[in-house]
Amino acid sequence: MVQAVSAGRRATATHDLDHWPEPGPFRQVRVLIAEPRGLVRDALRSLIEGTDPYSVVGEAGDLDAAVGMAAHLQPSIIVMNADLARSGLAQAMREFRLQSPTSKLLLIATDAWVEEACALVEQGGTGFVLTESTGAELLMALREVLEHDVYIAAGATRRLFSNGGRRDQSGHPRIMAGKGLLTARERELLRLISAGRPNREIAAELYISVRTVEAHKARMISRLGLRNTTELMRYAVQSSREGVPN
């Protein structure tokens, strides 16, 4: 099933997303939806088009149709149900990259896809939410993938580690804060957090405001699938001990 969508059908409601720049008349984010279920496509379209600056420009019900539409429409981002990638997410990504090199991918995944999705996230240009994620998280994930190239569903990191996934040779869960996951500024902030520096000192050293430090921390907590600043502190200390590059 393939359906092109007119930008003129966009809803007028908006969602409050802090730090998202004003779209302006020329800042349209074009979205392609790849989802086999019609009711879910309708819900996704309604949610996404109700939020500036997004515009759903196409819908596809299977992977082949989605790849073809990506080649034709060159969307900013592709929102795809991971279950469409029957040959694996890496292969689906290669097909999209070949046909639409600048498009970014946001996956909607079940637990079965978490480990493979995390591997793609570390390469950049990809993010994922879980099927039980809220609409608010999906919108946040869209923004994070567009602005920072990565997003990991809230709770996915804990779930992955508790299932024994992605462990290094020493048997400890692998820290996922490498260059493909956090920005350079966030890795620097992570280093300062691991040293026990308070927000005021971090702000002074990085020449930013305390409020900006808090915003960075909130994004890191979300992106790493953590619950609060205490978990972020533990994560920072563990990443420092395991020698994650800054």
Output the keywords.
single chain, about 250 residues, alpha/beta, Rossmann fold, Arc Repressor Mutant, subunit A, 10 helices, 7 strands, elongated
pLDDT averaged over residues: 78
Order of helices and strands: EEHEHEHEHEHEHHHHH
Poorly predicted spans: 6-26, 164-175
CATH class of the largest domain: Alpha Beta
Strand content: 5-15%
Main pleated-sheet profile: 7 strands, mixed
Task: Provide the number of structural domains.
Answer: 2
With strands numbered from the N-terminus, the spatial order across the biggest sheet is 1-3-2-4-5-6-7
Characterization of this structure:
The chain has helices at residues 38-49, 63-73, 89-99, 114-121, 135-148, 156-162, 184-194, 199-206, 210-223, 229-241, and strands at 2-4, 29-34, 54-60, 77-81, 104-109, 126-130, 150-152. Strand 4, helix 3 and strand 5 (104-109) form a beta-alpha-beta unit. Helix 2 packs parallel to helix 3 (89-99) and helix 7 packs across helix 10. It folds into 2 domains: 2-159, Response regulator (Rossmann fold, 3-Layer(aba) Sandwich), CATH 3.40.50; 175-241, Orthogonal Bundle (Arc Repressor Mutant, subunit A), CATH 1.10.10.10. It starts with a strand and ends in a 5-residue tail after the last helix. The chain is built from 10 helices and 7 strands. By secondary structure, the chain is of the alpha/beta class. It has a 7-stranded mixed beta sheet with strand order 1-3-2-4-5-6-7, with helices on both faces. 44% of the residues lie in helices and 14% in strands.
